[in-house]
Amino acid sequence: MVMRKLFLLTALLSVFLLNAQDKEKIIFTIDGENSYDAEFIRVYQKNKDIVVESEKKKIEDYFELFLNFKLKLKQAHDISLDTSSTYISELAKYKEQLISPYLQNPEATDSLVKQAYNRTVNEVSASHILIKIAPDAIPKDTILAFERISLARNEILKGVPFKDVALKFSEDPSVKINSGSLGYFSAFSMVYEFENTAYNTEIGETSKPFRTQFGYHLIYVTDKRKSLGEIQVAHIMVKSKSEDSTYAKNKINEIYNKLEQGDDFAQIALEHSDDQSSAKKGGILPQFGTGRMIGSFENTAFGLKNIGDFSKPFQTNYGWHILKLLNKYPVKSYDILHDKLEIKVKNGSRFKYVEKSLALKLSKNYTIVEHREILSAFYLHYEEKMKSDQTLMRIEDVIYTAKDFYDFKNDNKDKNIEKLYGSFKDRNIIEYYKNNLEYTNKEFAVTYQEYKDGLLLFELLQKNIWDKAETDSIGLLNYFNDNIKKYTWKRRAELTIASCTNKEKAESVRKYLQEGKTVSEIKELLNEGALIHVLFSSGTLEEGSDKLPENYLFSNGVSGIYDDNDNHFTIINVSHIIPPVAKKLNESRGEVINDYQNYLENIWVKNLREIYKIKINKKNLKKLKYQFNESL
Length: 632
Description:
The protein is α+β, with helices and mostly antiparallel strands. Helix content is 50%, strand content 18%. Among the domains are: 1-78 and 442-485 and 587-632, Triger factor/SurA peptide-binding fold (Orthogonal Bundle), CATH 1.10.4030; 230-329, Chitinase A, domain 3; 365-440, no CATH class; 488-582, Chitinase A, domain 3.
């Protein structure tokens, strides 16, 4: 019943209550509140398009439904149902969902996806220097860190080798092992700011200092190339022993000789590899691309040319290794990777650039006044001024104070004032857009108004009709007893239905049923193991059930074979026919509740028509009817 009611709501709630325009004509008023022909036309047109032909109504019927709908909404507002906490909460949730598509910036997202793909098919090799600085560092420490990274860059510009400067200045712990070299990497391997700088710096050039959440960086780009894609290798490792410096090398060479003699790589890995996690899988590692393994391991792996080739022994800090190439996976086409890359873009740090671009795009539509001098209080940590009501920014007629920014700052981990202010500004531009969307976008306004009215009417129907019909057991029983003749079983039969997809098998089934064989016996005779020729179902059905062949009438005994002309053959065996009989309440409860709800709603609407003063503009209504009669 609820679903049927919701369908009716969907049909009726295509109304959007616009202010009357010159061409709109009043068709009725409820206590002086006008309703216009344009509103009704939207309802009628939507109903006409979605209702099946057999259920279509005359325009007069739709007018009555529309009037009833307006009466219900009038009462909902009069009893302040639109101020209830449940209504407001539910409406707020829906509004966020409804706004979401309007906050997309397809052009910016598409640009980032294309950029990510370009950086997937092209890799960059770089070295870097890090000077650590916390996101919430005080200005003094930030200045000192910037001075130190600038000093490092000056030495590089004077000709000092990058690796020497990295060893001297970098606070990245790995610098002692790699002298700052990161090897090759591609999209999504680094934080976006780092990736951006690396790809935007020319080969042989050193970037300007830039900041991420880790601190200040310098990048020196050593090479750029087409991506090697991903590969999968199997791996044998022998760990070095501190007490025996030659053990690992000697053993790996013995293993290599065995492989050269044709011994099975997977079996040797299982028995001799010290990498326990891969040894039990025959040495197989997950597929990987550049930038995910240490340099010598990666270089050796990608240096293998043919599937099945294995490397010579090589050493890393972990021990000695031999690799076998299992497969190569070139980078897939843009069309294939698009959806995967789009998800990564939307879920990653670079998506904030989509939001930023949206804010920039929206800002062109608004008058925005900024008082950036107020930010000096935040740089100098003047607590009193930071919490003041001084205007920091104004978007149209909405003012944002220093206190607003102070609260925003305290809710964010990043304490860089300039970046925070940018985020604060962008967020409020988008928030202003969201808050005013229903006044600036007609499509959104229509949909949002439909839901506001629909949710309100749903709450009212729940309160006045649906809950009462479900819980008023005495009223329901009285209604059932007063209308008991409506709830009667048609003829029913206890029967068995046999279904076959082969006419010859169907004929055999009919013959066996006539001979009195049981369902189990027939299955045993006709079905051949997993090959099923006949399916049976048994039970009690009402005449006209959609489970029965069309136009079939009950008759005791075995029926003929019904062919639906789609290789589906049906035989019915009726054992007992039950004549029509009145239903009990528990047998017709759903149907009775549905009818009782309609009964309660009719009484309710009748009362509403007595409570409120309705004035119909017969002249405009006549014109409206004529207009649609002419067009039908």
